[in-house]
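step 4 of 6: structure.
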Amino acid sequence: MQEALDLSHYAKRASDGTLGMDLAVEGVACGACINRIEGAVKKLPGVTDARLNFTNRRLHVAWADGALRPAQIISTLEKIGYRGHPFVPLRAEEEEAAEARRLTRYLAVAGFAAMNIMLLSVSVWSGNVTDITPETRDFFHWASALIALPAAAYAGQPFFKSAWRALKARTTNMDVPITIGVTLALAMSLVETANHAESAYFDSAIMLLFFLLIGRTLDHAMRRKTRAVAGNLAALKADTAHRFTGGELVSVPVAALHAGDRVLVKPGERVPADGIVMGGSSEIDESVITGETARRAVAAGAQVYAGSLNFNGSLTLKVSAAGSGTLIDEIERLLEKAASAKSRAMRLADRASRIYAPVVHATAALTAVGWLLAGASLHDALVTAIAVLIITCPCALALAIPAVQVVASGALFRAGVILNSGDAIERLAEADTVVFDKTGTLTLPEPRVVNADAIDPDLLQMAARLALSSRHPLAVALSREATSAVPFEGAVEEPGRGVRAMIGGAEARLGSPAFCGLDNVAPVPNASFIVFTHAGRVAQLAIAQALRPDAAEVVNALKALGLNLCVLSGDRCAVVSPVAAALGITLWQGELKPAEKITFIDSLKAQGRRVLMVGDGLNDAPALAEAHVSLSPISAADLTQAQADAVFLGDRLKPVLDAVVIARRARRLMKENLWFAAIYNAVAVPVAIMGMITPLIAALAMSGSSISVTLNALRARLTGARP
Amino acid sequence: MNVLVYLVPMALGLGLAGLFAFLWALRSGQYSDVDGAALRVLSDDDLESENR
């Protein structure tokens, strides 16, 4: 019987009464896909709208309530060769989309104002050296004021609000000097305009806002792009569970499970949610949870955790409340402790602004006092002091770090590293010690055939194709070796024993030694094995966790970068030791509990080390939170991924190396930019103190320094991430 | 130079018109799928539906 798939969890009612669903679509490659997908879905009965967003590979479908089952959309997509994964857009993502639209509006207004004011200002500057009449100049200045004041009040909001928040919390940030500078420049220009003065600084104030908004908008857009990809990956990972609903078995998305639901876990499937076993017995692989590679036997009454792999028997579970159970409780408790103990690393930008603001404001005050003492009028002294503030307004300084951040997170994204937290780049660059988890981090998340080289290629291919007909985890591992995805016709699976099929006139069997008619087969140490027989030929296939293909290379490259490496695993020492030896890592520990991993990281911290923790298991989550900076593979447990500062994709370990290399280069560029901004100020400030700044010089200095800082930041993407 | 009295406001008005056109395009979602828009323009589906 075909099990019904219930996707009502994902359907959301719109204001016009139709139902809508968002799907992340896999396989969208070219422009023609847009029409094929939208065309096919729109042909479904009751569908009122289907729109594919090609930028983030998402399809939105709306249909009249009751006209179709949402599962039909997925099967339609499958028929034309795409895989659709429904998801509920995260709140955070929607808020970020709204923020992005707001920032773009501010940017548009600031851009419009900056261009029009500049048009007027250039006329005034050229008129001042030729024959502009005072009336025309006043008219131009008033026109500038008319554009600048409302534009600044609107487009300056993000800076004013952030500065106000910082001041209320009795701290200071980069937005405080920006706000003071802009406000004073506008106020002084207004007074000067009213007094028919020769120069006003409306253009400087608005241009400053425009440049800063460009930086902020790009930073935000890059973060949204990575967030969208992360959201799609989460949708791809989301599994379905078999839930008992009124005596019938219904497939539901895992997100729709509630505490108290009863679910069936078939052999070869992952446990969908934390729960208690009600019936059945099986062996489960908990390597995603504890790092332990040996299987655990479970029967009625046992506690199992989401993400464990069910091996040989069917289990009936009662789902328990989210985040309950002895292990989860301990992890949560450790996480809380780690989070409260974490001293937030001070970001470079904040450190810079903490030095910058007092120095600049003191200089401006001293300038005013100095000119007064030298006998200048109060008006002239104030105008000069404000000119100092305008020329030092931290345009280059405020762009120095975001510009590098944007370019570097783009480079990381291309290297397969998705950032979760904004300041991860700076902390990654500071790391001097890397702590690896073993299972699923140094090794591949899924087991592989480890003795493939020792087996005849044609025999291995035959066994792998036969394995395609079974859901048993060992068979699934073996089937990854298959080059053809076509299973043998007439293959029969005998549950719990193996698969058989007729190949080329002879019977082939894959399964336990007894099933294949063999006895006294020597077991392989630290590996599971299955046997394949065909026409008298026998192959014994050892299946175990294998190292990531480039693990050794990456480990050596990390060492060459001067990083100390160690391995902390929850697995048995007998399994950890050969892995550490193969990679040449001398410092390793096995059989660690989550709390012991934290203790180890604390002892490293006590030695003044900055630890980069790379881990995937649920048991690594507290250690990831405790470390200075953390990475986890995309296959990691959900709770663990949420703790990591960045997530990396793929089967290779290289993204870890790339992350360190790119982050170090980015930090170097950030520092260069800060120094550049400091040097620029050191040159410009004396000129301003002497009262020789004109609006033209201010405009040139500001755009010149901003552009050079931005160009320098672009160097973060120039060279590829080579070790 | 009296011509400036109405030329400058006119220039400003044109600029404002551009600004509002951009804000309208932003609000109507024309910037939500920039890559897709570039490819959709190549599709001939709209011609087919005219013939029907």
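step 5 of 6: annotate
 - The CA atoms of residues 19 and 487 of chain A lie 39 Å apart.
 - The interface with chain B takes residues 30-31, 34-35, 39, 52-56, 101, 104-105, 108-109, 112, 115-116, 119-120, 133, 136, 139-140, 143, 147 of chain A (CB under 8 Å).
step 6 of 6: archive
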